[in-house]
Design a protein that fits this description.
By secondary structure, the chain is of the alpha+beta class. The protein has one domain (3-123): Aspartate Aminotransferase, domain 1 (Alpha-Beta Complex), CATH 3.90.1150. The protein is 39% helix and 22% strand. It has a 6-stranded antiparallel beta sheet. β1 (40-44) and β2 form a beta hairpin. α2 crosses α4 (110-121). It is globular, with a radius of gyration of 14 Å. It comes from Oleispira antarctica RB-8. Pfam families: DUF1801 (PF08818). Residues 20-118 form the YdhG-like domain. This is YdhG-like domain-containing protein.
Length: 134
């Protein structure tokens, strides 16, 4: 784990850190399943960020200002969130065209979220396909 990202995780309350580690693990598991071995982990805008050379960045964070939720952010200049809305409808709660929002006590639909992460990690290769090939 990138040291600067590890330090960021240490700033989260323990219950939040556990949730965000699960998202981090999901990103790396999806990348492995998709044969993507070049994931870069860093901080962008002070948030854990993950990107592949064929994809669009994924960030996530929890903010004390909104203690009952955390968000996974996608590039708002892509068609990712628009596609997620078309494919998964109200499976997720969205924040505009940039984020999926989760309540800290909710069960995360992991299969659907893994598919969204996969589309983001492969975005440059699939952006020309209808519904990103979903």
């Amino acid at each position: 784990m990138d040291l600067i990202v590890k330090k960021k995780f240490e700033t989260y309350p323990e219950n939040i850190s556990i949730l965000l580690y699960q998202i981090r693990d999901l990103i790396f598991n999806v990348a492995k399943q998709d044969g993507i071995s070049d994931i870069t982990e860093t901080l962008k805008w002070g948030e854990p960020s993950y990107i592949s050379n064929i994809g669009s960045s994924i960030r996530f964070d929890w903010k004390a200002k909104y203690p009952d939720q955390y968000c996974i952010y996608f590039n708002c200049k892509t068609s990712l969130i628009e596609t997620f809305k078309e494919v998964y409808g109200d499976t997720f709660t969205y924040e505009g065209n940039r984020a999926i929002v989760f309540k800290i006590n909710q069960n995360v639909p992991l299969t659907e979220l893994a598919h969204c992460i996969s589309m983001s990690l492969r975005y440059k290769e699939i952006k020309h396909l209808n519904f990103l090939g979903a």
